Amino acid sequence: MSDPEIICKKLGSCGVITLNRPNALNALNLDMVREIARALDAWEIDTEIKSVVIKGAGGKAFCCGGDIKAIYEFGKAGRHEDQLAFWREEYILNRRIKFYPKPYVALLDGIVMGGGAGLSLHGSHRIAGDKFSFAMPEVGIGFFPDIGATYFLPRLPGKLGTYLALTGARLTCGDGVAFGLATAYVPSSQHEALLQKLIAGEDVDGAAAATASQAPDSDLMKQKHFVDGCFGAATLVDILEEIDEAGYGGSMFAMNTYDTIRAKSPLSLSLALRLVQLGAKLDLDEALRMEFRVAARVAMGHDFYEGVRALLIDKDNNPVWTHKEIEAVKPGEIDPYFEPIPGELEFPGLATAP
Questions:
Q1: pLDDT tens per residue, range 81-138
Q2: Is 49 part of a structural domain of the chain?
Q3: Is 344 known to be catalytic?
Q4: Is there a catalytic annotation at residue 285?
Q5: Is 158 a catalytic residue?
Q6: Is residue 344 part of a domain?
Q7: How many structural domains are present in the chain?
Q8: pLDDT tens figures, 17-66
Q9: Active-site residue identified among 90, 138, 202, 306
Q10: Tens digits of per-residue pLDDT, 225-250?
């Protein structure tokens, strides 16, 4: 028999979730979402469970995100309800994690992207290991940062959230701790020791402090002035003009950032910027509902399928987007993506957000 894709075990005083698809970088599918939800429900009422830990198997990734290829295949086959079922239950799980009443500890070593961010950043404790590599790269495949990113990205320091949404840039463990994505740096060699402390019933904060070390320096922090100065502009065109001006001033970082953004889907960039701008004033429930609307409509369009084809299927890295350039996205063109849809995202049986 093949190994289970996810393992949920009660070990001592700890509920331990292991994402167990190492050959797929622990990509998240609907069965895994449902199994995590079942475990959280059971452990919430289990008085012996003091904390929950989630980790990834294989050493390369915590979780690279949702199983994009499966979602792509659903869409190509016209199975849009299956796409929506995944996003619906994933987003409900993201919210469940955010308001979970017990400490929820994500051991983040390796790749943390997309849906992997949804399984971790909403939790109370995010422990970065040496190989921590965080990104929200969705605009590169014709999608947008979802899983509550509309809520948490604009709440990062300065304009980092907008920068991450539009570039898909990767952050190291030093960056993660410096900007608050991670709550602590625990060397990878100490992750098992931390887990054993939690299994033994130790207080999470005390156990994390006992195994933590000083985080490495953040290279991205050195660019904070540039990020805050350029990514606060109101439109994509204005942001690119600010970046271009910094590039003319001799910043290689700015020049690389400019080229990176220009390669992404213009439609996705427009959606991502709007979501981050709106998200600063939304609570998590409102943000997730908005993302669900946008996802439902993106799934009916062109760029998502073209982006996945170019980067993950054919791997020619040459997507042909609906719009040739950012300037071709007309004012008001993305407004319909945000309108209510039949079958809105709801949170049945869950208490109102605190």
A1: 999 999 999 999 999 999 999 999 999 999 999 999 999 999 999 999 999 999 999 9
A2: yes
A3: no
A4: no
A5: no
A6: no
A7: 1
A8: 999 999 999 999 999 999 999 999 999 999 999 999 999 999 999 999 99
A9: 138
A10: 999 999 999 999 999 999 998 887 78
Residue 354 within a domain: no
Active-site option among 15, 115, 142, 176: 115
Note down the domain range covering 116: 6-338
Place of tokens 């998200």: 279
Sheet holding 104-108, edge to edge: 6-11, 14-19, 51-56, 104-108, 125-128, 184-185
Contact 115, 92 (CB under 8 A): no
Residue 309, domain member (yes or no): yes
Nearest to 49 by CA among 199, 169, 175: 199
Among 102, 103, 174, CA closest to 134: 174
Tokens matching residue 317: 């890295």
Question: What predicted TM-score, i.e. pTM, was given to this entire model?
Answer: 0.94
Catalytic residue, chosen from 66, 75, 123, 168, is 66
Is 77's pLDDT higher than 70?
Answer: yes
CB 26, CB 20: distance < 8 Å? yes
Task: Detail the DSSP E strand segments found in the chain.
Answer: 6-11, 14-19, 51-56, 61-63, 104-108, 111-113, 125-128, 133-135, 184-185
CATH number, domain containing residue 68: 3.90.226.10
> Catalytic residue at 244?
no
* Residue carrying the six token digits 């069965």: 31
